[in-house]
Amino acid sequence: MTDSAAMGAPGRPLSIQARLRNIEPATLIWVALAAVLLVLVAYPMGKLLVSSFETRGTGAFTLDNYMTAYGRARYLEALGNSLMLGLAAAGISVVLAVPMAWAVSRTDMPGKSIVWITVLGAFILPPFLGAIGWILLAGPNAGFLNQFWRWATGLQAPLVNVYSFSGLALVIALHSFPLIFIFVKSALDLVSSEMEDAANILGAGTWTTTLKITLPLVWPAILGGTIVVFLETIALFGTPAIIGIPARINVVTTQLWQFFEYPVRVEVASAYAMPLLLITVVMILAQRLLLNRKGFVSQSGKGGERRPTRLGPWRWPVFGWCACVGIFSVAMPMIVLIQASFAKGWGRGFSWDNLTLRNYEYLLFRHEMAIQSIWNTLIFSSIAATAAVILALLIAYIAARRLVPFAGALGFLAMAPFVIPGIVMAIGFYAAYASPPLALYGTAAIIVMAFVARFLPIAYANSTAAIRAVHPEMEEAARILGSGRMRTVAKITAPLIRKSLLGGWLLVFIVSARELSSAVFLVGPKTLTMAVLIYDLSEAGNFEVVAAMGGLMLVITLVLVGVGMKLAGRDFMLRRD
Amino acid sequence: MTIITRRGLLQAGAALGTVGAMGRFPALAQEMTPHEKQLYEAAKKEGEVTWYSGQLSAEPGEAVGKAFGERYPGLKANVIRSTSQVAFQRLSQDMRARTAQCDIFSSTDSGHYGFLKKEGLLMKYRPKNADGMIEAARKGDPDDMFQTCYFGLYLMGYNTQKVSAADAPKSWTDLLDPKWKDQIAVGHPGYSGAIGIWALLMKQMYGVDYLKKLERNKPQIGRSSMDPVTLMNGGERAIGVAIPSATTLLSISRGNPLKLIYPTDGTVATPAPTAIIANAPHPNAAKLFMEFATGPEYSRVITKLFNESLRPEVPPPVGGRPLNDIKLIMPTMEEAEKGVPEMREVWRDIFGV
Question: Domain ABC transmembrane type-1: where (chain A) (predicted)?
Answer without folding.
Answer: 79-287, 374-564
